[in-house]
Write a structure and sequence with these properties.
mainly beta; three-stranded antiparallel beta sheet
Length: about 170
């Protein structure tokens, strides 16, 4: 049994419920008594160009050649018109922040990260992208601020992904 499992068990013995106080907020948190290890795999052969692009510092979207619908993350098949005729288009990276939120209460597999900001930006090409926003001070975030979507290496795992970085004055 994991450390959290032991904590839940102790809480149940003391209080009759698997509740603890969350360290940061001091609010009650329910701890499941069941562990749910989760690791998933899925085939990416049809969208492998996206991952190859990340290795080259490029970020791609797809656009249906039949109906013109645009997709990010890239899709191998168009859910709108049900065809597989997709075109790969590199994103310029230019976008405008639509919304964002700071993540303070994280899934257990993300607790090694400091609090982080996730944003949605509308890209110049018309698609909306969800990504982490790399910024030194959340107070610098402004409505409709310009952002650049770039590739980055996420540490400590060392894998290549993408994130937004702010553009403009005072950032």
């Amino acid at each position: 049994m994991s450390n959290l499992g032991e904590i839940a068990k102790k809480s149940i013995e003391e209080k009759g419920l698997p509740l603890i106080e969350e360290a940061k907020t001091k609010l009650p948190v329910y701890i499941s008594v069941r562990e749910l290890p989760l690791r998933f795999q899925f085939g990416v052969a049809k969208v492998q160009k996206f991952f190859e692009g990340l290795k080259e510092g490029k970020i791609y979207m797809t656009q249906c050649k039949t109906c013109g619908e645009k997709y990010f993350p890239p899709q191998a098949d168009c859910p709108k018109c049900l065809t597989s005729s997709m075109e790969w288009i590199p994103l310029s990276g230019e976008g405008e922040l639509v919304t964002c939120t700071m993540i303070c209460v994280k899934p257990s597999t993300y607790t090694h990260y400091r609090d982080y900001i996730v944003g949605i930006a509308k890209m110049k090409e018309g698609v909306k992208v969800l990504a982490w926003l790399k910024i030194d001070d959340p107070k610098k975030i402004k409505p409709k601020m310009k952002v650049k979507l770039t590739t980055t290496v996420r540490e400590p795992e060392g894998f290549i992904t993408y994130e937004f970085v702010p553009l403009g004055e005072g950032i």
